[in-house]
């Protein structure tokens, strides 16, 4: 076995002192594992995940909308109130997003920056960025309505990012990074909740199954596009039970603010079309691992059994009345709940850090092996 130069004194000290051997073994494994010793999940031997790269909507928007002319923003208090330095960064929650959490669990880094962050250090490109833009969706109308970045815009930036990577580390290493990184594709809920149900512009042309078909085929095109550019390990998130998020209870859940069943059914219909699309691509695109991630059932289980997860409030967000406030409507003029860790939702649409932590742990536990 080849031992790097720096290991040799450690081997000698094992021989010198058996009483200190456990400390030495600890140091030894620390050195061997290097940066990845921070990983909280165990990857199969020999597997490297150099970066996390995210596309989609507000669930994994790391601040892309901050400098756009849109109302879909979160770069002001109380957003970010539990983030390091209580910084509102444009993340649509009180702390980190699932994109940060997944990068952290994989031992890559603690904060996944937005590609559009004007102060980004180029070194960050090597370990991943997010292209996601809050309010976006698979239906090209969805980002247009709120002036945010479409999937086409995100793809264009991804191409630009690849060129930057090539400039930094060359063609071959760039390809290695793309082929081995974990790609997160999170969208669909804004298409259904905003474009289809709330604004209603698509209702004239499409019933729910045909609209869900449009979404799934747009998702399919996008997945093929990033595959062609080098992505192989791709996590594709299904729609959550959108009828149960606080704002949709208010808009479609009647006087008692029940879950809006029609919205939940639409999410299920969409998921039933997205899942076979991912399976088909996974089996036809060589070397790909394209995995559908069910978020519907884990989130619904928290909503139905909150106490099992240490959560007390699931039908209101922590910000303001909790019934409707999101983005610019959730701002520093409003009070927040005293303890956001008792709430599943931070605003009327997005989970709290507590909610995201539960979901990310479940999802990683269930799906991580499917990527390798
Ligand atoms: C994806 O395809 C591979 C074979 O290429 C297979 O081993 C794996 O189980 C598939 N994954 C899913 C989630 O269908």
UniProtKB/TrEMBL annotation:
Documented EC number(s): 3.1.1.3
Organism per entry: Helianthus annuus
Pfam families: Lipase_GDSL
PANTHER family in alphabetical order: GDSL ESTERASE/LIPASE EXL3, GDSL ESTERASE_LIPASE EXL3
Enzymatic class: hydrolase
Keyword line: Hydrolase
CDD domains, per the entry: SGNH_plant_lipase_like
Family: Belongs to the 'GDSL' lipolytic enzyme family.
Record-level Gene Ontology MF annotations: triacylglycerol lipase activity
Protein name, entry field: Putative GDSL-like Lipase/Acylhydrolase superfamily protein
């Amino acid at each position: 076995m080849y031992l790097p130069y720096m290991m040799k004194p450690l081997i000698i000290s094992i021989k010198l002192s058996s009483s200190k051997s456990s400390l030495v073994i600890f140091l030894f494994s620390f050195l061997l594992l290097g940066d990845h010793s921070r990983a909280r999940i165990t990857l199969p031997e020999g597997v490297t995940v150099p970066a996390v790269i995210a596309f989609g909507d507000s669930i994994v928007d790391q601040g892309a909308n901050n400098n756009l002319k849109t109302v879909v923003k979160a770069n002001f208090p109380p957003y970010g109130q539990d983030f390091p330095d209580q910084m509102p960064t444009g993340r649509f929650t009180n702390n980190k997003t699932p994109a940060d959490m997944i990068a952290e669990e994989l031992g890559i880094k603690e904060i996944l920056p937005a590609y559009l962050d004007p102060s980004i250090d180029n070194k960050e490109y090597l370990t991943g960025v997010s292209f996601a833009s809050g309010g976006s969706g698979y239906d090209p109308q969805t980002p247009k309505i709120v002036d945010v970045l479409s999937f086409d815009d995100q793809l264009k930036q991804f191409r630009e990012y690849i060129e930057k990577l090539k400039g930094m580390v060359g063609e071959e290493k760039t390809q290695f990074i793309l082929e081995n990184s974990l790609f997160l594709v999170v969208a669909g809920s804004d298409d259904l909740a905003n474009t289809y149900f709330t604004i209603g512009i698509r209702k004239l042309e499409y019933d729910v199954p045909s609209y869900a078909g449009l979404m799934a085929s747009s998702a399919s095109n996008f997945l093929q596009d990033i595959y062609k550019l080098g992505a192989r390990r791709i996590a594709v998130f299904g729609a959550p039970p959108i009828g149960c998020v606080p704002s949709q209870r208010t808009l479609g859940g009647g006087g008692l603010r029940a879950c809006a069943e029609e919205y939940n059914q639409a999410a299920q219909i969409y998921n039933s079309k997205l899942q076979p699309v991912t399976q088909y691509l996974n089996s036809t695109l060589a070397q790909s691992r394209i995995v559908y991630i069910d978020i519907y059932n884990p989130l619904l289980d928290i909503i139905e059994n909150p106490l099992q997860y240490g959560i007390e409030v699931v039908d209101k967000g922590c910000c303001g009345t909790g019934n409707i406030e999101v983005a610019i409507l959730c701002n520093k003029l409003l009070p927040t709940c005293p303890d956001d860790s008792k709430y599943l939702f931070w605003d009327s649409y997005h989970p709290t850090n507590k909610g995201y932590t539960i979901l990310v742990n479940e999802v990683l536990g269930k799906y991580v092996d499917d990527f390798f």
